[in-house]
Specification:
Mean pLDDT of chain A: 93
Shape of chain A: elongated
Helix content of chain A: 25-40%
Distance between the termini of chain A: 24 Å
Structural class of chain A: alpha+beta
Strand order of the largest sheet of chain A: 5-6-7-10-9-8
Number of strands of chain A: 11
CATH superfamily of the largest domain in chain A: Chorismate lyase-like
Oligomer: homodimer
Low-confidence stretches of chain A: none
Number of helices of chain A: 7
Radius of gyration of chain A: 24 Å
Chain lengths: 230, 230
DNA sequence: AAGTGGTCTAGACCACGTT
DNA sequence: ACGTGGTCTAGACCACTTC
């Protein structure tokens, strides 16, 4: 049974749904009533129900009340750590090599996303992340030098570009996409595999209040799985 | 400047970090002090700081206080909808075909994860999800009939197994993994592509309080991208 | 031992959306 | 118009962890 604590209340609400007492699509009592029933303050009940709503278990709307979701949207929270920390977290030794680092004109697809007004100077990097000396991920990165002044002074062979950016350009927002792609010439060479091998690719585009900061493609070595719980 | 509302406070805290007033690794004032400074109740400040901590921006520990994260762990929240809703959400017409549906003995790798005590009866399904009549995702699913009694009575050509499970076995937990894999014989045939083509694969294992319910592998058509914002 | 965040309470006002 | 959830307040007690 539930105590008057919000985790206990969440557990009891989940039990009622699981046991069919509250069915998908059905309305449940208002939070004032539930607070009375559970003998807790409305704020406590609110926190429990709000978190269940954020998790996609409940649908809440003012006036309409609270319902059990008909189609609970599973939400998987992926933690995207620095590649270095991801590797060290597995007990492996991290290292990285900068394969290419140049200030060059960007191809049209990149320009469109990184340099919308055409004035920015861009830095292009190829970098290989190693775990216990074995290739772990291949990084293809564009950096907007206007958004990250000072990175030209950094020793990117010592600190990875990702890590420098995290420390020096904090709190950016952006998009992230996950996909499967065949290995291209550069990645195949880096991993020592055949071109066309299926690779897991993460593409991140980060901005700092609309200003593009960096566009990065991380291609992981064959066999990589990104895992989380739901 | 911030009003005494928690979103406003969050925005102001983020601004102070972005503008370097509060640096990564540094402690920020205690929430009682900040509440005084912002002229709000401690509970309001608590909610703002707590949400920023959940987002990985701040590190909070009793007695030790609140610090700006040195390595903010980016958290990407992926919403995993029903395949039908994902397709209909793009304005396309959903359909699905059951390619195979049999109660058969499972191979060892499956048995280990779905049938640990060796007593369960398992149902095996191959299913193709279509968007505007084009193959969208290939589903390879095992279902524990002990956890989902009644699914044998369902018409899985009308309602997909996924949808039936969501409606009838609510509130399960589990693991999810994302990977890239070469197309096998079945998926290559289903999508009309060459074997070995890089496919984006999602593997979900769901349980209901330790009891395995279903193990599903969804292989998406070439070009699929799973996108979210961070 | 003491300071910090974690939580709960009882009450209040308000925004929103259904009616 | 009115019922519901969304939020804020002022205060309190407690748990954890560092000192």
């Amino acid at each position: 049974m539930s105590r008057a604590s919000y985790p206990g209340i969440k557990a009891e609400v989940l039990r009622r749904i699981r046991d069919g007492e509250w069915k998908p699509g059905a309305a449940i009592p208002a939070e004032t009533d539930l607070a009375t029933e559970f003998g807790c303050a409305r704020a406590t009940m609110n926190r429990a129900l709000r978190e269940l709503a954020e998790a996609g278990i409940l649908d809440r709307r003012r006036k309409a009340g609270t319902r059990v979701s008909r189609f609970p949207v599973r939400k998987a929270t992926l933690e995207i750590p620095l590649t270095r920390l991801e590797i060290e977290g597995q007990g492996l030794t991290y290292a990285h090599r900068v394969l290419k680092c140049r200030q060059i004109a960007a191809p049209p697809g990149i320009t469109q996303r990184m340099n919308p007004d055409g004035t920015a100077r861009l830095l292009h990097l190829f970098c290989l992340h190693l775990a216990d000396r074995l290739p772990y991920a291949f990084e293809d990165r564009w950096i907007n030098l206007d958004a990250a002044p000072g990175i030209l002074d950094a020793d990117l062979t010592t600190i990875s570009a990702n890590e420098w950016l995290v420390q020096n350009v904090p709190i950016s927002d952006g998009d992230i996409a996950f996909m499967a792609e065949p290995a291209g010439r550069d990645t195949a060479a880096a991993f020592g595999i055949a071109e066309g091998t299926a690779l897991f690719v993460v593409e991140r585009h980060t901005r700092i209040s609309r200003l593009p900061v960096t566009l990065v493609r991380l291609s992981y070595a064959p066999g990589y799985r990104m895992v989380t719980s739901i």
